[in-house]
Amino acid sequence: MTTNASSNNNKGNEAPILLGKQHKAEVINLHHEMTRLSKQGLFITDTHAHMVKPYMNTYAEALEVLEQGANLGVNRTIAIGITLEDSQQNIELVKYVNTNKSRNNIHIYATVGLHPSDVFNYTTTDAEQLATLAKQGGVVGIGEIGLDYHYDNAPSKILQQQAFREQLEVALEAGLPVAIHNRDAHTDTMKILQETYTSHPKCKGGVMHCFPGDAKLLRWCITHNFHVSYAGNATFKNAELIREDIANTPMELILVETDAPYLTPSPFRGQGNKPQNTIYTAYTVARVKGVSMEEIVRQTERNVRTLFGKVTA
User: Fold this and answer.
1) Which of 88, 91, 272, 291 counts the most CB atoms within 10 A of its CB?
2) pTM of whole model > 0.90?
């Protein structure tokens, strides 16, 4: 038996099945379905994971995690940068994996960027260094960049906005898409993106990472042909707003991610997140959309290649 959401889709006001510890048979069926799809050369991409220090101790450990992902049909991972240091490590990880992997079905790419929570000492020199990193092999995007107004002890809004704008300019010059972090900063995020990036002829698009569930922000993304990525929090019982946005997101704009090691999806909450768990978010998207896992896998793969033009494998 294979997992086919279209045979058991969400009708009317019926809530989609969310995998929990009591759904062991459903989880097994999902694993079987991913095995079937993998044999056809179909797989899922974790479009946003943190794969280097301090999240992974060694590149060898990261490679082992990628191998685990490939066993469950998550054959491609995009390692996300949040500092200059780990952006450089992402590039080195890509080289390490491509040199040491024992299986051709494991693929990894990198982004480089400065997270808004890590720009306390930001200067334009940082953007210049980022521009140099963006030219390295395996780099497919600039991110995660953006704004985070959640914490009182965060970098000043003015400094965050400067770093955001200048990194968007790096993306324009590099001809790369962007991965956006936005927490409690919807209005300023949309404003800066529209002023600095999406209105520019060199814009290569982007993704609103770990979409928070906000109708106005979703409308902005759809209007500007901006991709929307859903993470493990879409599987939480209290995530009705996120699932409502999934229902309203065009299929051609949907991506899935883990944000590993954070936001571990049901049914494995409480454990550290890994790329392999992208399948549970994809399953939730399939249930909400009322389509099969195969359709979600095929569509998200098309979307990854549309957005991240430098992804070749």
Assistant:
1) 91
2) yes
